[in-house]
Each structure stands twice: as structure tokens, then as C-alpha cells.
Amino acid sequence: MDLNSELVYHIDILIFGIIIVFTLASLPPAYARFSRRSEWSQGHILRSVDPRTSVEPRINSNLSPIDPKKPSFVEFNNTDSSTACASLPSLPRFANDKALPVTSHRNPPLPSILHPVASVLRNRVHDNYSIGQVLLMLAYISIIFYASFYKSNPFTDPERAGWVIASQIPFVYALATKNNIIGMMVGVGYEKLNFLHRLVGSLMVIGGNVHFLGYVYKWSLAGDIYEKLAEDYVRWGIVALVCLDILGFCSTEFVRSKSYNLFIATHVAGLIVFLFAACYHKPACIPYVMAACVFYIFDHVVRAVKTRITTARLHPLPELGITRVEVPSLNSGWRAGQHVRLRVLSSSMGWWGWSEAHPFTIANVTQTSEGMILMCKRTGRWTSSLFSMAQTASYGETGKEVGRDVRVIVEGPYGGVGHTVMSSYSGAMFIVGGSGVSFALSAVQDLMQAATDVKVIDIVWSIQDPASLTPLLPLLASIVQNSPSSRIRVHIFYTRAISTTFNGMYLPNGITLLPGRPKLKKLLDAAITDTMSAGGTNGVFVGVCGPVSLANTTARVVKESDIRLCTAVGGIKLHEETFGW
Question: According to the 3-state scheme, what is the secondary structure of 544-568?
Fold first, then answer.
């Protein structure tokens, strides 16, 4: 074994060793999670089971005034409202074997012990990158640079760069898959590791060009560049390089945002052609390519197992600019906070719209008669087409109805809170923006029906127009009024001037509607204080779902929270779900 092959072999072992270290660190929370019987069957495969016998609150898309003679009401202070509210459906108090006295399987209280370190690592340094992510990327870059330049010069020894990028083929493919083996080992979703996939891919593009230009320089000095370029193995190397460069260009944020279909098409074609070209260019690449093929095939087999073709019902929610998608044939198999990838098999989605898969967070709990519910915000061409389809009139037994049935492909579930068990914490706070409320709705309802230690739950929802509250008010009111053991409050903030009247909208106790942006630090301190007042010492779970700016603000607030309060309550666990990873 020469120096090049031996060196890249050892750096692969080093990278794998680092993955093992993170895997070992994830074992305690993994044990805490899977010591609960229900966790073995949830979060893996979508399926249909018998729904619970209960009255389920529904999102009301046609909320009518309750009593126009009573004054309209909008809450403008921090005290609970005491106005009248319409009779609303109740959430059931579930009673089953999991609701009987059980031993608390709490995640290890590392956030409390290592709060100063965790606060530093959560600090943002650029866009949505934390210090922890930056340190991990710098460590990876250092390993690659060491392997590239140790006793080597890219101008005199361009072969080294080729060996280094070949050694990274398995990792870039493993990190690209939805059923990410590395993510399974360390207990996080594929979307949380996507930044590493982009990093490794960028390093391969740079290394591939250094490898080629180094040989061009070397052959030019020797005067045999044309003879070399005519050889088959060199031509296959150029094919592989072109694939890498196209993948690198089409992976830029500009291309992804302007033409996502181009990004997907080039990835599918380029990654496959690159593997064949690498093997023909250098047979020594075959072991690395075979490893990548194993990851790729494993991913697609699992994706096939997780895929369901079924019928969904589309309902428009104009106040929110959201399409509500109901999939009654799937009502179990996910955990709160997980998402699915949705394809709509209809020509109304456009020429290529049927081929696009988009991720949406599941907005409800399992085992309901409604089945799985998705809330798809109208933001781009695809979601706008979906919203237009939902507005199409159809005819049912009751005559003309808004909404329609459509065939869909649902793949998942993916992501979520990993090995974190939300019900093991003493307090929970969900900070969401716009359609990110779907994350809070599923999580809170899941906490209400589980055997839980959570004593205090706060939902902080930022919307643009207070009219957006109308379709969700019955569901939110029912959640607040029918919590079996937790104190639940909903704080809603709107950023636009009021453009509609509020005749007939009445807010129940526990729901406040305020103008402006939420003061997250004050709300978090209040949640921590309320949790301690209720006797909670198992920490506070903070989940944020919304734009990157909201996640950044929440991370900064958590970092700057009073360390004495955090230690007293048992620590703070922050989980982020951002729009567009």
C-alpha cells in the first residue's frame, strides 16, 4: 500500500471513528426513548389503525359569529381573557396502559450540566450555522487538508487530490440519502446533516479541479498533454469532473431557489454518471463506489417501504393562505414534529408538478378518524397550484362543496426531534411562525394524550394578519380548555395593521392576541418560572418552527437565558425546524 492509499484509508477510519463517538454520545437518550414500548412502533412506517373513540376538534374553515350583539374582542394585555367563547369540541382525556403510573424515562440532564458549553455551541455565527456546526465543519476541512497536503504538493503530486476525493465518495452519498445511516447512528434526521453533505460535496468539487489542473500543469511541462488527453482513462476522468462541476453549480442557493427541478435532475443524473466515470477512470475507486451504491440502494429500498399511494382531501384555508391536506387512510406511524414528502398525482399541478416531492410537517397526532393532516403554505408555484386545486368546487352528497379529492404519494415519516422524549420534560414552549404552527399542534396534542411530566406548555405563534386565527380558534381553544394535567397558554402575535373587523371573535381563557413581535426572552423566563412554581425540575423543552430568522432569534434568546434559572429548572433543550434546509 503506497502513501496515498494508506493516508486516505486512515482518514476514512478517523472520520468513521468520529461518527462512532457521536453515536456513543447519543446512546443515553436513545435508551431513554426506546425504553418506552410505544417508541418502537412510532416514527418509522406510516399505517392505518383503528382510531380512538373520542370527539376530535377540527380546524374550522367557516367560523361564523357567535353573538353579534356582544362586543368584539381582541386581547391587548398579558392577562388571560375572560370573554365568552362558543361551545367548542373537547379533546378527550385519554386513558390507557401508558397513562397509568409509570417510571419516568427522562433524557439525561446534559443541558443542565453543560449549559455554558451548550450555550456557546448554539450561538450563531453565520446565517443558520451555529458555532457547533462551524467547529464540526472546520474539523472536517482540517482532516481533508491534512490528507491533501501531507508530504505532497498539488502541482507535483496531483494524484493525492484524486485519492482524497475518491475516499469521500461514500460519505457524500451517505449524507445525501433521506434514510441516512449516519443520521440513524447519531440520532438526527437527514435534514440536520445536510450542511455536512454540502460541505463534503464542495470539497470534492474543489479537489476534483485541483486534481485535473495539477495534471494539466504537469503534462504541459512534460510536453505530452495532447497524448495524455487522448487516453480513455483521462477522458473518463474529465467526464467525472464535469459531473462534479455541474453538481457544484446547480447546488448553489441561487439555482436551488430559482429552479429546484434543475437541481434535482442534475443531482440524479450527475451522481449516477459520476460513479461509472470514476470506476472507468481509476479502478481503485471501485471499493468506494460500491460503498456508495450500498448506501444509495439501501435508501431507495427503505423509501419504497415508507411510500404510500392513496387519496387525499384538499381544503383551502384562505385566511392562512394554506391548503389543508387530509389523508384518512393513514392515521398512525409518526411522532410529533416529523414530516412527510408529498407528491400530488394530478395534471392540475402542471407539466412537471406531479414529479415534485415537497416536505410538510404533520399537523396532528396519531389514531384520529381524520387521518394524517398536512398544512401546506402557499409560497411558490407548486404550493400555489395546490391551493388553486383545493379551491376547485366539487359535488358531494350535500351538494356543491369547496375542496376536492386527489391521488397522492406520501413518503415518510422523516425528521422530528430524534431521540428526545418531549413528555419527559417539566415544561415545553413552542415558538412558531405562520404554517409552522403545525409542529406545535402535533406536539401539544401528543403531550396531552401521553403519560407526561410536562406541567406547563406555552405556544407562541407569530402571524401577519389576526384573521389567520379564525380557522384554528376552535382547535386552539379546545386544547387550552381540555388539558388533563398541564397548564396550556397560547400567545398569538400579529405584525400587520388590522384590516378586518372582529365581530363575533371571542378568545377563551388562556389565549391572548397581541400586536407586534413576541418578546421571547420575557416569555421564556415566564415559562421557566411557571414550570418551577409547578414543581418541575426536569428541564424545559423549547421547539421552534418557522423561518431561519425566527430560529436564530430563539437560539440567541435561549443562549442568553439566565443560567441560574436554567440550572434550577433542570436545563433547556432547544430543537429547531426551519423552512427550507
Answer: EEECHHHHHHHHHHHHCCCHHHHHH
